[in-house]
């Protein structure tokens, strides 16, 4: 018995995975990426004269892809990739098309040298999208940098919504390990947001931000932030130079933060005092 070389087998698998677009409005361009649940292709929509992304499920996840399409269709928000079309291809595989997001995955963006404040503002946009979804009763369940895209102009899009229960180990809340969907609530996404925030921070990590990550990733769901909006506000407090609720400052740290936040005003005040001091003694000469 002879075996196919790995490269030949891989090529045959990729060819077999190519979508059958005959009779549709779409023309295949290239594969964009694949994961455990499916593959995403770039295709050209001849009817609307634009490029879009077309997602196909892995063989066992056809029904789940339709569920995902229905979830995404309910989330009309700038931070959620918009869905355009859904149905079945001539080969009977389920598909849906969505906006082609051009930019970088969040993990690649974080390695690109963006400042801490820019990374935190991107994170706030992620929180906005998750808060909106939770307000509609939708959980993500597999939030991670690979599912978040950052566009060329700072736009943020969260993808792959509400299907996976297990999640990705590094970003998975403790309660997700049991794999019981009924026991998983919004707190699981808060845990994942904490892990995502941790991936955006570089050494040395500011102690207040490290405390925010620890709170968001508490093993006890009740000890985490109550919602994504609260986590967003905590990051906003740090960016605005205020104390964060998750971290108890020492008096020295409080004084240092006050100085940094009010440095221009304090410098002007010092200049004023020095000038008045000089003028006072000059008048005595």
Describe how the helices and strands are arranged:
Elements (H helix, E strand, L loop, with lengths): L5 H12 L8 E10 L2 E8 L4 E8 L4 H12 L9 E6 L5 E6 L3 E3 H5 L5 H20 L12 E4 L4 E3 L27 H15 L6 H10 L11 H12 L11 H11 L1 H22 L1
Antiparallel strand pairs: 1-2, 2-3, 3-5, 4-5, 6-7, 7-8
Helix pairs in contact: 4-5, 4-7, 5-6, 6-7
What does this structure look like?
With 285 residues, this protein is an alpha+beta fold. Helices cover 42% and strands 17% of the residues. The strands form two sheets. Strands 1-2-3-5-4 form a five-stranded antiparallel β-sheet, covered by helices on one side. The chain starts with 5 loop residues before the first helix and ends with a helix.
Work out the count of structural domains.
3
What is the level 1 CATH name of the largest domain? Mainly Alpha
Class computed from helices, strands and strand pairing: alpha+beta
CATH homology superfamily name of the largest domain: Transferase(Phosphotransferase) domain 1
Strand content: 15-25%
- The beta-strand count equals 8
* Tally of separate helices: 9
Radius of gyration: 25 Å
Structural shape: elongated
Q: Tell me the CATH topology of the largest domain.
A: Transferase(Phosphotransferase), domain 1
What does the average pLDDT come to?
Answer: 84
Order of adjacent strands in the largest pleated sheet = 1-2-3-5-4
DSSP helix fraction: 40-55%
TL;DR?
This protein is α+β, with helices and mostly antiparallel strands and about 280 residues long. Helix content is about 40%, strand content about 15%. The chain has 9 helices and 8 strands.
């Amino acid at each position: 018995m002879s075996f196919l070389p790995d490269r030949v087998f891989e090529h045959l698998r990729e060819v077999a995975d190519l979508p059958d677009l005959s009779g549709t409005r779409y023309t295949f361009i290239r594969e964009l990426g694949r994961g455990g649940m499916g593959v995403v292709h770039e295709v050209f929509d001849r009817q609307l004269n634009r490029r879009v992304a077309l997602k196909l499920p892995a063989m066992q996840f056809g029904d789940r892809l339709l569920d995902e399409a229905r979830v995404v269709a309910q989330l009309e928000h700038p931070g959620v990739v918009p869905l355009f079309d859904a149905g079945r291809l001539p080969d009977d595989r389920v598909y849906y098309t969505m906006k082609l997001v051009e930019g970088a995955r969040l993990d690649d963006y974080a390695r690109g040298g963006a400042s801490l404040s820019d990374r935190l503002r991107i994170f706030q946009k992620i929180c906005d999208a998750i808060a909106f979804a939770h307000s509609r009763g939708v959980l993500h369940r597999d939030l991670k940098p690979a599912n978040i895209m950052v566009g060329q102009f700072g736009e943020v899009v969260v993808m792959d919504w509400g299907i996976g229960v297990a999640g990705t180990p590094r970003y998975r809340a403790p309660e997700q390990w049991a794999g019981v969907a009924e026991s998983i609530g919004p707190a699981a996404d808060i845990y994942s947001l904490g892990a995502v925030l941790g991936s955006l921070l570089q050494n040395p990590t500011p102690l207040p931000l490290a405390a925010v990550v620890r709170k968001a990733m508490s093993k006890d769901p009740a000890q985490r932030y109550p919602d994504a909006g609260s986590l967003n506000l905590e990051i906003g407090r740090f960016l605005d130079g205020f104390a964060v609720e998750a971290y108890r400052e020492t008096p020295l740290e409080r004084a240092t933060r006050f100085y940094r936040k009010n440095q221009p005003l304090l410098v002007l005040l010092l200049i004023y005092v020095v000038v008045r001091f000089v003028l006072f003694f000059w008048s005595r000469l």
